[in-house]
Amino acid sequence: MIGWWIAVLVFTIGAIGASMVAARTDKYWLATVSLLPVGLALILGSTGNPLPGDVSGLVILLSAAFVALATIAGSPLVALVLSLASYPAPRGEHGGILVIDADSPLPEREILRGGTTIGYLERFAFIASFMVWQPGAIAIIVAIKGLGRFSELENAAARERFIIGTLVSLVWAGLCTAALLVGR
Fold it and tell me: C-alpha 95: how far from its chain's center?
């Protein structure tokens, strides 16, 4: 069964590359290939085909690959789901979205800036918290993110994007974490 796990590693590396292309070219659908290695790892691990204990090098490589996949592929997957779930929001110069506020002296302003970077950090912290057997840290991650964004969530478009983006990001990190841990 080690051959299947090597295939998972190869597919994971390919999915990381596809996700990087997806993020750079705004062809977010390319990141859906990331579902293949995650699904394959979940199937292998849950059907009684865990990694043999004598292949620690492969375990380390798979762990690093799944951490990278969780971190990198999450951004284009979040962008894909947001494009399907909500109306398109005009992008700001700094990566946020532009909103129009009747109460504001400025005709439009940019909110939710830095979301991509925050997403990378939250997914990395999510999977890392499970790898060190501290899943309670996820509550702290979500609380920090919510408190940090609280002042920008008065706008309905911002609330929608924040909730959908956070949930997709955390679900993706959870799937990658499960794929990583189920094979051990």
Answer: 17
C-beta atoms surrounding 119 within 10 Å: 24
Residues 2, 58: contact at Cβ < 8 Å?
Answer: yes
Nearest of 44, 42, 46 to residue 3 by alpha carbon: 44
Bridge partner list, 98:
110
AA identity, residue 60: I
Residue 76 CB partners (closer than 8 Å, separation 6+): 19, 22, 23, 28, 30, 31
Centre a 10 Å sphere on the Cβ of residue 108 and count the other Cβ atoms it contains.
13
Query: Model pTM?
Result: 0.87
pLDDT tens figures, 16-48: 999 999 999 989 999 999 999 999 999 998 888
Torsion 49-50-52-57 (CA) sign:
positive
Write a three-state SS string for 8-33: HHHHHHHHHHHHHHHHHHCCHHHHHH
